[in-house]
Design brief:
mainly alpha; 6 helices
């Protein structure tokens, strides 16, 4: 099926898949407004990066997530196991994107650091499930999602320490 797609058809799939996480991240940034100002006044744990790094890191991660979802979408699923894994991975991808969005609101807008940490742990499990299911279908997509897992692992450390220190 994927070999039958024309270049314009691939572009019509590529653009929304890459744009979606960037739009979600952009809306989240707009809704959290002065998030980096509040981040800078928190008691910071060791290894806390400067505030300016977060928008850069998240932009890169959202692009990688979009690429991963695009590769997954186009990946052939020629067995029942692959079809199931692909379907589950795509569903979990969209759900985790919603969880990602809500985390910022819990952490920055509500200043509920412990709840944000619990929320982030649920997100972290979803990312692992998404990567596991994706690995059964498309290695390129899997590679695109791994930096996201690593960053969220680091974010969990930061979130937990901020919950403890503040």
């Amino acid at each position: 099926m994927n070999e039958e797609l024309t270049c314009p058809q691939k572009i019509l799939r590529f653009v929304p898949m890459v744009a979606l996480p960037l739009i979600v991240g952009g809306i989240s940034a707009l809704l959290t407004g002065n998030a980096m100002d509040s981040y800078q006044v928190m008691i910071q744990p060791p290894l806390a990066p400067p505030a300016w790094l977060f928008p850069i890191a998240w932009t890169i991660l959202y692009i990688l997530m979009g690429l991963g979802s695009y590769f997954l979408l186009l990946a052939p699923a020629d067995t029942t196991e692959k079809k199931s894994a692909k379907c589950i991975a795509m569903i979990v991808y969209f759900i985790q994107l919603c969880f990602n969005f809500v985390w910022s609101l819990i952490f920055f807008n509500a200043a509920q650091y412990t709840l944000a940490f619990i929320w982030l742990m649920i997100l972290w499990v979803m990312i692992i499930v998404m990567i596991w299911k994706t690995s059964k279908v498309c290695w390129k997509a899997t590679l695109m999602f791994v930096p996201y897992l690593l960053w969220c692992t680091f974010a969990a450390y930061l979130n937990l320490m901020i919950a403890i220190l503040n």
